[in-house]
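Re: duplicated header lines in exported structure tokens

Our pipeline writes sequence and tokens for each protein into one text file. With two proteins the header for the second block appears twice in some exports. Here is an export where it did not happen, for reference. First protein block:
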Amino acid sequence: MSIMEFWSHSDWVIKVLLLVLGVVLVMVFEKLYHYFLNYKSMQQLQNMNTLNELDTMDESFIKETLLEIKNFSGSSEALFNSFVGVKLDLYEHYMMRYVTIIGVVAILSPMLGLIGTFIGVWHVFEGVGNIGLNDPAVIAKGIKEVIIDTMAGLVVAVIAMIFYKTFEFIGAKSVTKFEEKLYKLLRGQDA
């Protein structure tokens, strides 16, 4: 069976789940690309001892954040600390972009598969009601729909959950490392 045949014979639940999986995979590739760039920036950051060495870094979100912190012209230490806290929150938001959406897909996909399951069971009962129990093909078609919809929902959910938890871990670890390095640079310690 070709992909086009599978698409044309699938119900709307399968089509929605496949489209959602495609969107999740696009987000995954985007996150992987940004995590790779972030990893390179963090490697450069680890070799820095002061914020005056920012010119040696490649352009990145980390460099922009550090430049904004370095060039802050507030009048009080409390204002500066608040500014640093906001910048750390923005960095965390940057690292977690799309992660929540992937998590929502992981949660909702089995529910969408369950809707397909109910529709398949409804078709089974509808076929039995119209034709009776004389034609097992009607029952088999409905059971097939039930199994495929349930399985598709679970497959999409498992894939999305794996990426969700992985990205959540990577994002949290990166934020912690960045925060630690930033405070060391701000205190002027050898980082």
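Second protein block, exported in the same file:
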Amino acid sequence: MNNDQRSLVSGLDLSLFVILELLGLTAIFGNASLIAVLVKFNYLNKPSFILLLSLAFADILHGIVTIFYFYPPIILKGHYLSLQWMKIFNTIDWIAWAITLTHISAVCLDRLAAIIFYGRYTLLVSLTKIRYYSIFCWIFFIGQNIILLLSNVCCMIIPLQNKEYYTFGYQRDNNFLNQTNIYIYTYTPLELSTIIIISISNPIILIQLYKRWKRKCALQHASVLLLEMSMKLGAQQSHIELTRKSMQKASRQQQRIVLQIVTVVAMFSSYMLIYYLSYYIFPFNYKWVAVLHSVSYSITHISNPVIYFTCNKEIRKQLFTLCIELWQYFLSCNRGLLFERYQFPLHTIERTQQIRRLSSVESQKRMQQSKTTTTTATTTTTTVDIMIKLSTNIITEMDTLINFDEYEKQQIEEKQNEQEY
């Protein structure tokens, strides 16, 4: 990035880039944490959590694409990737987008079936059916997007220069990507069907939840009145208090379910509304529309982990226990590595210093004895042990050479003395 490009980067560019990148990182780590909790604590034996698992994987892919492809041009003020890498990122993003659309629709229909059919839900929706559905969606859309990529018939989504790279979309009136936009014909029916399913199913779900909640409250209130009328508010006061607490707990649970549904639907619907209004119906050129589109797109990827970790007390507690277990495992691994790396007997240094003071024959004997004793020990060989052994071997060899020279000198002197005598 040269000086002219640096001068073009404003405070809005930097702040928007930081916010969007943080949202992308939150999407990656939040959904990865959600996947870890679902796998660790055996949630995958329920059909709805299989759908949630696929949504979490798709949101991770979206986060990777936004971090490395969509938002860096905000401060770089230009495309920094080659055309081939742009195609790869577009393929990943379109696969994740297809999984998001199909599985959000499936989640809405799953909740609708669970509320309406209730007792017959397990007959209609089974774990095997949902698993096959999820696997089919992944295989089908991965194969479809690879075929479109190899056929070179895809018009890619890129960060838009005419909107100062604040958002992304199809490049219009430019020959940079001279390709057919087949994605509009492929994904628009899927997007519209998802919007229709969400628009129809979620109001029915909310109405049914409200009716069930009112019915349950009425039954519990009637049971409390019967207890108050039949008992004389003495020893049975505790039963009435327990009934009231159960009523409050049930109402809070229903409120959490409603909050989850409303939040997910509001996030996804707001993004789709902004997306269709800004790109298909009323093409705006305002900065705030581009910023709103990018922010809403990034927020949709963190909706599931935020909702489940804030509204579901059990999953939040399991996340904390998982973090504690990972931290303890990390500490134990570090302790083991440090113990294995620096654990060597200090008396080996003293032993080598004592060996240096001995003669060559005795030093070799002591070295052999030390080798036999060290082989019987169970301590692992480290780099420090190897260096000590090498140094002792070199020292003993030098000692033997020096002793051999002294021995030869003594022999020569003895021969000379014998000749003189």
